[in-house]
Request: fold
Amino acid sequence: MAEEPADGGTRSEGVPSPPEKQGRSSRRETGGPAGDERETRPSRPSGESADAEPGRRTGGETGGERRDRAVGERDRRPGDAPDRGADDERDRWDDDRYGQGRRSHGPYERGRWNDDRYDRDQRSDDRYERDRWGDGRYDRDPRSEGVEAAEGAYSRPPTSPPGPPRRRRFRRFRLTAWITLVVAAVVVGVSIAWVNGPPTEAELREKAGLLNKDRLLIGVKEDTPGIALRKPGETGFTGFDIDIAYMIAADLGFRPDQVDFLSIETEDRARMQARDTDGKFVKVDLVVATFSVTPERRADPSVGFSTPYLYTEQSVVTRSDYPDRDVASLGQLENKKVCSLGTSTSLAELKKAIKVDPIAELLISKCVDRLADGLPAARAADAVTTDAALLAGFVAEPERKLRHHDIALEKTEMWAVNAGSNAALRVLVDLALYRSYADPQNQRWEEAYDKHIRPLLAANPGVNVAQAQQPCALPPDVRRWPWERTLPVQDCPSAP
Reply:
């Protein structure tokens, strides 16, 4: 027989007792933080029907407001059997507001949520809120406007903004405008400089006509030991000028096997006409043939000198038994038979110093041959004068028995490469010489000097054969980006 409940209702067997009958904690102890007092709503009179007012059952609302049930009250419809799920539902949820579950214990809820609303996370600190919301309402989350409208302003105290919103927005706008103007000015300046600036190295190669060339023709001397020599019966050339020509050709994009050397005579260097193996004149691309720079040659439109690649000076060579032990000036050669290269700077200086007409030859080796013993008077010469670097190799040959004299001329002979009227090619040659001079890792010039000229110094004591340092070279006018300018720009003293 079922017992009568205390509230006057009836309860079937097997139906669990209300929470207060089973010794369960009251609703204040389940789901909310400690100390959370909830108002207990009055119970419905026992005699009142469940259908007295519409919307009073579980889940119903009238006018947007719910009527809370008393502890232990269950939703029943008239004539329905006892609903055991109602007690379980009441045990699972404390009140009608979704989010306060029995599983959400007090410490867990206090650690995760600031209050009863599911939209305030403790991790949303002041800095996060300031970064997330850019308006003046730092204590209002746009996502919770509906909740605030119904239950009041946000419970957390507002955080003071760093400054008036309008002023901060104006400062941001002004900074952005300045950055935009600076970037635009830099872009425009770089574009103008790039379009109107000097040509790039690739453009110079195209203008020089090197893109479709498979052979590079270079005119050189063939009779000067140590500088440019082709031995009888051989086709190859050796010497300082030859190595310099290979260095320049490499920077122009040509391998050694793509370079052809042709013998050129002194008077043909300006015209850039060399002879091939058949003796025919051929137009060459470059002339690297002990060509000294002078104002008159610079004025020639067919001559395009590069920056100098070697400094030397004029000197005199005689037989070792020459009566005058030392020849200190060209004036001492008065009334002597003196030989020199035709159309050379040395011949011009000799004509200024002596009254007797000198002997002019096309090859310096022919002049030196006139110093040999036992020659007829008509072919013999008493002295030879030209650049010291040209004569040093002959003096170093012991069988010739020659003596080298320093005549102390102030004028410096500067050897340069002739690119003719091809201005783009001349700039590329300057770039190759500049790289050789400025790059400490580029030792090709020094290697050529040590291999061909330095061994001649011992046989030519007291004579400045050639300076052991490459002449200073300034960077040519070639367009390059700042990160491409890896070589230092060094100050060059005034050219001698």
About this structure: The chain has a mean pLDDT of 76. The first strand starts at residue 216 and ends at 220. The chain has 13 helices and 14 strands. The radius of gyration is 52 Å.
